[in-house]
Structure formats: C-alpha cells, structure tokens
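User: I'm curious whether this sequence folds into something compact or stays loose and floppy. Could you predict its structure so I can see for myself?
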Amino acid sequence: MTTDASGTRAGSPSDRIDTSVAHPARRYNYWLGGKDNFQADRESGDAMAAAFPTIRTAALENRRFLQRAVSYLAGEAGVRQFLDIGTGIPTANNTHEVAQAIAPQARVVYVDNDPIVLAHARALLTSSPAGATAYIDADLRDPERILAHSELRRTLDLSQPVALMLVAVLHFVPDGDNPYSLVRQLLDALPAGSYLAASHATHEYLPPAVAVEAKAAAKGGGPHGLINLRTRDEFNRFFADLDVVEPGITSVAEWRAESEPQPRPSVVEVSMYGGVARLP
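Assistant: Here's the prediction. I'll summarize afterward.
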C-alpha cells in the first residue's frame, strides 16, 4: 500500500476491507452488542466466548475503564490532548466526548487500521466547537508514521502534555513486533507531564485449562485475531520509568470504580489489567 505526501494511504479504503477475516474492532463491536460486524467477526467472537464465557463483561468493563481514565486525565490531571490508538468502532462516550464534557477545548487524534472504523469515526466523532478531533489510518506497529502524520501535527501540540491511550490494543501486538519498543517510541515523542493509559488481557486469573483454550480460540481468529495474553509483570513493563497513578496496575473492573454500579464483576470475570501513569 502506497502513501501520499501527508502520510495518507493511497487508494480507496474499501479496497482494504476483508470481511472474511475477523478484525478486533469489529469483534469488539459484536461483544458490545453493535451491528457493525460480519460473519467472520461473530464466529471468532463466539469461539472466544466459548472458552471465556464472560468475554462480553470484559469488553464492557474495558470500555468503562477507558471512560474513567479519560475523566481522570481531563479532570484531575488537566490533560487537554489525547492520542487514542486502536480506536475501535464508535459507541457511546468515546474519548473526545468524555474529555470535552469536562474540557470543551480538548483535542483528540484517533488512530486505527480498519477502514470501517475510520469511516464510522469520520461520520460520528464530531468535536465540540472549542476542541478538535482528527482520524489517522495507521497501525500501532508504525509509530513513525503516526507521529509524522499531518493530521496529528495539525491537531496536537507535542510540546504540551498528551495522554497516550492504548486501551485493549497492546495484546494484539506479538512479542516479535517489539511492543515495548513501540510504546517507548511513542512516549519518547511526548513531553514530561504526558500520560500513558493502557489495558491488556491476561491469563493470570483464568484456570490453566481455560487459559490454554482462550489462547487457542484467539489464534483461531486469523491474523487479526491473535491475542497475546500477558502477565501482570509483563504488562508492568509498558510503564517502566513512569509514575503510576493510584490505585496502580489493577483489574480494569477495579480501577477507580467506586462510582460504578455495584456489585462489581470479579477480576476472574474480566481478566484484564489496566493502569495510568505519568511521564516524569
């Protein structure tokens, strides 16, 4: 795929839509009860749900974690710029909606590599008049392209703090693609006072047999379906040299969830870590 001078991929986005292969964003949409998915996404989602029956609960809790993290960042931390990579198909209370409800001048750049996501984002994710939103067609595994993109440079001021949102996307990057290096490249482009907010699927709360089945089901989803379940220590490595915000690295169901409906899902039902940290 070629790109033009602005970093935009050449050709029609529809040329890259392969509905025969499951895609994480569309499968996630299926788990959340959306309609923007295809048979391959539903089959992959059902296969994973067969091994991990509370996967839909995990998806919902991950979404709520994102909303609470953005609320903290825009409110208590005072962040006014967000770089959201792995956007997913828009639902209610997206990053810019949560941030701009607190700070109307907040500016958000969304990044995803699924043309369907981008089409929905451009149609539905409209900014407040005081703020701004932009959408980049790119992959987390190409940080140079993201950081150099004209839309990012036009929307964000990288001399001012930025919240890097990597919510439920890092587990799609295998160790062979050097995920820690990718995250470090993105963080190194941001100034002190920026933040990283991330969540990641784990197998540590699952019975061993279920963990094996979950990994097998994920790998059965095709190249876009591979999920790399990591331990807490492995997830912690993404926050190396950062100042982790209280309550630290914990289940997404527990991270600053005091105002959420009770009782909360268990860490076993969700099986996903989350955390927020500040660049010193």
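Summary: The radius of gyration is 18 Å. The chain is about 35% helix and 15% strand.
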